[in-house]
Amino acid sequence: MTDTAPRPTLEAVAARAGVSRATVSRVVNGGDGVRDILVERVRKAVEELGYVPNQAARSLVTRRHDAIAVVVAEPETRVFADPFFALQLRGISKELTAHDNQLVLLLTEGRDDHARVGRYLAGGHVDGALVFSLHLDDPLPELIQRAGVPTVFGGRPGWSGDRRDVVYVDSDNRGGARDAVRHLAGLGRTRIAHITGALDQTSAVDRLDGYRDVMADADPRLIAEADFTPAGGERAMRELLGRCPDVDAVFAANDLTASGALRVLREAGRRVPDDVAVVGFDDMLPLAEQTDPPLTTVRQDIEEMGRLMARLLLRGLDRGTPREGAGDTRSGVVLPTTLVRRASA
Amino acid sequence: MTDTAPRPTLEAVAARAGVSRATVSRVVNGGDGVRDILVERVRKAVEELGYVPNQAARSLVTRRHDAIAVVVAEPETRVFADPFFALQLRGISKELTAHDNQLVLLLTEGRDDHARVGRYLAGGHVDGALVFSLHLDDPLPELIQRAGVPTVFGGRPGWSGDRRDVVYVDSDNRGGARDAVRHLAGLGRTRIAHITGALDQTSAVDRLDGYRDVMADADPRLIAEADFTPAGGERAMRELLGRCPDVDAVFAANDLTASGALRVLREAGRRVPDDVAVVGFDDMLPLAEQTDPPLTTVRQDIEEMGRLMARLLLRGLDRGTPREGAGDTRSGVVLPTTLVRRASA
DNA sequence: GCAGGTGGTGAGAGCGCTCTCGCGCCCGCG
DNA sequence: CGCGGGCGCGAGAGCGCTCTCACCACCTGC
After folding, report:
1. In the complex, which nucleotide's C1' lies nearest to the CA atom of residue B52?
2. Which residues belong to CATH 3.40.50.2300 in chain B?
3. Residue B62: closest CA among chain A residues belongs to which residue?
4. Cα A211 to the chain's mean position, in Å?
5. pLDDT, tens digit (0-9, with 9 covering 90-100), for A196-239
6. Which of chain C's bases lie under 7 Å from a protein CB?
7. What is the pLDDT, as a whole number, of residue B160?
8. Is some CB atom of chain B closer than 8 A to the CB atom of A321?
């Protein structure tokens, strides 16, 4: 672990190029209004000295940081057990990188961390925040909103209904759910059950709503509540089999849940899809491809969600490519989903 | 997206508390050498004004940033397809948070990004870096080392043999592999095969070495090369069955590979574990629990690896709890693994 | 009772950058 | 040939903080 050598300053570059600090600064920041001869000379000096601007000094005066916080509130390990989070992060990273912004990651667990995150964001260390608010009762979004930091949410926050200034990006959970259920209906299934996700999350609520859109007059006993986990899926599937032995299809709120349901179905001697067809949600790989049978599911473009979140935020900050998809700063952007047919339905 | 209000400065707090800037600064940074009466007065003023120090201004003079870069070089999506990365990140995040450091995430893909990362690190925006170098020929580690930023590597870098100043944290891949193979041997298996990982990664090489430690005089045809993917596992397993039909056990380089192997074995009508016992590596959940049969595998404490990396780096920077596990700044730290017995072996 | 600490405080000089301003130069026009 | 107006550049004032240093009590010891 070596110490970093003393880095050359603007002053040094200026001296070497035989110009003033101001001119070097202009060149470094685009070089408008400087004669080509000088631009060239300064560039050369920068090169030779290996000059890199001191971001701290720059931020001090510009009050920008070219840094965005990504806040992932996840008391449970769920987010970590699937690639969802990582993919979104990657989309975000790509977009931020393309616009020369840094990504400051804040992972929170438990209430204690909320204050810390609030303080950090209020502290003006970053220009904006991307926040994943997964739970309806999560105080974090409110807290962040209050910190006065420009924010884009990943997933519809629970309270967005009453606030038109909330910007978020979400998948079309409801539409995707409708597609899944319609697909099952199209297969001739009539006793289509739904295993819900954790209903304190908007995604679970929206998927349930989608199910209801299609199955308006369905037997309410065909709905079993679970929590997005395989174990929850198993439990719910057992319930379902006990309650409605004639069930011939299941739409599970996500692939993990579906995998649990599949296992119970197999144990119960029900053939999939012959006896019971199963559809999941997420298209979580490799899981969805490797269940037995491979899972028909609803795919969402997670990486694109991340990218879009970043783009929206940057645009709100007057960064990013101007007018690209002009005026698209609607408060909520919903990305389409697609049904991926495999063997389970 | 509201604009942030003008924040109070040290000066403002000083005025309100009736002291000098210097005194406020002292209080904000611990309050040593200031009378309790004044400390109290300053604290009150800070509270009332909602003062938060301007990190940019502070960094400008202290030359510290209390920020650590986490560099994840991953051209392939592999890292994103499993929770490995996320868990490690979480461990890192916990440790950094505990010491009030920020986590700047740099994801790279492809050669172009290397220069960008190098520039960023050399730019002195962060105090140190945690780098995941997964490939033997990755130029990134060298590049980073040259940038003169204190660095801890995740996973043994390929070239660490010749450089004693390289600090890294790794799992005991070799020892874990030995345990796995010994376990299979203990089951009375004699034709134990190994499906390797991508051999341009040290973890794959080390696991292969562990296999060889136990199976010194094994039939070389029992070794099939794969790449950590399920598809690779399938391919290798087919090869193996063709080459050595009498194979009675398989140690796969990771769980993904093992899952592919399991599928091929099932198709081939071999019962697991009766005909062929299978052991994986990683204990990747939920996959490992949900294969058919559930996978016996080698677990590594991934979160702890992350935490340890952060701790080592912070300690190297003279931060972190002093003397905690004194003098433990060895160049390489290897974490133990444990065999998790499930049904497949 | 005075030299020599000692512990608490404030004044002030930067850290490296941006940005406003004004000055000089050269152009075009009258 | 003189004068107004750009345009290109440099001087200098900060941004908000830390940290050294000098200063001013007050306290100890001879």
Report:
1. D16
2. 67-171+303-335, 173-300
3. A56
4. 23
5. 999 988 999 999 999 999 999 889 999 999 998 888 999 999 99
6. 7-12, 14-20
7. 52
8. no
DSSP string covering A200-256:
TSHHHHHHHHHHHHH-TT--GGGEE---SSHHHHHHHHHHHHHH-TT--EEEESSHH
Protein A153 CA to nucleic acid C16 C1', in Å? 35
CATH number of A67-171+303-335: 3.40.50.2300
Q: In which residue ranges of chain B is pLDDT below 70?
A: 1-5, 74-83, 134, 159-164, 319-330
What is the third-level CATH fold of B173-300?
Rossmann fold (3.40.50)
- Interval B70-89: pLDDT, tens: 998 765 555 555 667 778 88
Radius of gyration for chain B, computed over Cα atoms and rounded to the nearest angstrom: 26
Q: Provide the residue type at B7 as one letter.
A: R
CATH 1.10.10.10 fits A173-301, yes or no: no
Neighbouring CB atoms inside 10 A of A204's CB total: 23
CA triplet B241, B243, B245: central angle to 5 degrees?
50
CATH number of A10-53: 1.10.260.40
A60 Cβ within 7 A of any nucleic strand D atom: yes
Interface touch A148/B5, C-beta < 8 Å: yes
Backbone angles phi and psi of A26, in degrees to 5: -60, -45
Angle B232-B235-B238 (CA atoms, 0-180°, nearest 5)?
145
Residue-wise pLDDT for A50-73, tens only, equals: 999 999 999 999 999 999 999 987
pLDDT tens-digit series, residues A14-64: 999 999 999 999 999 988 888 999 999 999 999 999 999 999 999 999 999
Give the distance from residue B263's alpha carbon to the nearest chain A alpha carbon, in angstroms.
9
Distance of alpha carbon B83 from alpha carbon B95, whole angstroms: 19
The number of residues in chain A equals 345
Minimum distance, in Å, between the CA of residue A215 and any CA atom of chain B: 31
CA–CA separation, A167 and A150 (whole Å):
9
